[in-house]
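The passage that follows is intended for readers who have already worked through the single-chain material. We present the inputs for a multi-component assembly, then the predicted structure in tokenized form, and finally a short commentary. You are encouraged to pause after the input and sketch how you expect the pieces to fit together before reading on.
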Amino acid sequence: QITLKESGPTLVKPTQTLTLTCTFSGFSLTTRGVGLGWIRQPPGKALEWLALINWNDNEYFSPSMKRRLSITQDTSKNQVVLTMTNMDPVDTATYYCAHGRILEWLVRDFEYWGPGILVTVSS
Amino acid sequence: DIVMTQSPLSLPVTPGEPASISCRSSQSLLYTNGYTYLNWYLQKPGQSPQLLIYLATNRASGVPDRFSGSGSGTDFTLKISRVEAEDVGVYYCMQGLQTLPITFGQGTRLEIK
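Having made your guess, compare it with the prediction:
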């Protein structure tokens, strides 16, 4: 059974750095064809993809967010950490991590999602 | 970026009636391997998105067969043969052909009349 859960601060101040952790079980990020993605959703708005790391340790970032994002994985702990610098109130959103299936180096789908964590950016 | 455009944005449906949602991409989602990298998700109220359809036409595990996906190239459709009350929520299409960036449609809100 695959499960994922996001953790981290629910309130950050403008200009601060956000660090979110996705802890997962039921799969390994070293298995070919597996990836882990981060997607966010501002309140009442659509989904926005942020980042992906795959079994080959390749990292992909949304071009519009690339300068602010980094992603790392700890395979021994089954965790992936997303870091976003210089937070702004417009970054207020629910942040999801999701198990991705990769087919020929492209994202086939996000089959399993965590419950999400609402992060509010406010002074 | 590949732009994903859904219509309608709001869809009131009577239970038992069919429903259809359209998704158009700004470029073809067919890859050289013959697969079309288009997914459909349903986000029920207060929940995370759940995968309904992958590779344009394949139902995900556990998805009722009243849901079906069709289309090719740039035009795709999600159909619900008979809407049930549990189908309410926001439906999103997503393309995975271009990783930088992966893009979603703006969402279609299905509500029960």
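Commentary: Residues 72 and 87 of chain B are 24 Å apart (CA to CA). The mean pLDDT of chain B is 97. How closely did your sketch match?
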